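It is worth pausing here to work through a concrete case rather than discussing structure prediction in the abstract. The textbook approach is simple: state the sequence, then state the predicted structure, then interpret. We follow exactly that order.
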Amino acid sequence: NELFKRNFSNPEDMTVFICTDLDKETIFPLVEKYIASIQKGETYKKVKNKPVLPVCKGEVVFDRTYPLLSAPKVDVDYQFLSTVKENLKTNVAFDILDHIMSERCLTRIREERGGTYTVNFSSDSYGHKGRHQSEITFQTRPEMAEILLKDAQDLMDQMCERGPTEEEMDAAVKYLIKSRGEKQQKNANLITWKMMERKNFIS
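Step two, the predicted structure:
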């Protein structure tokens, strides 16, 4: 892009370091042949910008009062740990758990209670020896914090006692398959873009 050209396209701006056991008489012809012969790039005029500094004489007091922009909020972060054997099957199981619990939390905490705009459920490896950490996080009004925290605990207890339904499992599997395909396509597009960028730079 234009910024890259301004900073790196002109060989006159390069500083070349050569580390070798050859003597100067051997190096100079090689430098002239392979480096000094590089075609000159475009020359850009560098603009020097001096920041404008405020001039305040004597004693200056800034006294401002701002209105409250939002209502008070409480951050809720409910965490729990588990120890399971680390393998592909376990990782997929946690992905399925994340999807199902996210849907349950959205339904109970956001849709039914109206207690928050967004709620997240996520799991990740924690330390070593198969330790995993899952957590439910959301923001809510102070008066709703205890109620919604109890909902989060109940939802997790229900999952531990009864497990997912068949419909939830089908929906989670379909979501993961779709998500995997989208990620593969995104990675392929990124690789193609990088290769085109490198090709354009070389040419």
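Step three, interpretation. The first helix runs from residue 2 to 8. The helical segments are 2-8, 24-34, 88-112, 145-162, 166-202.
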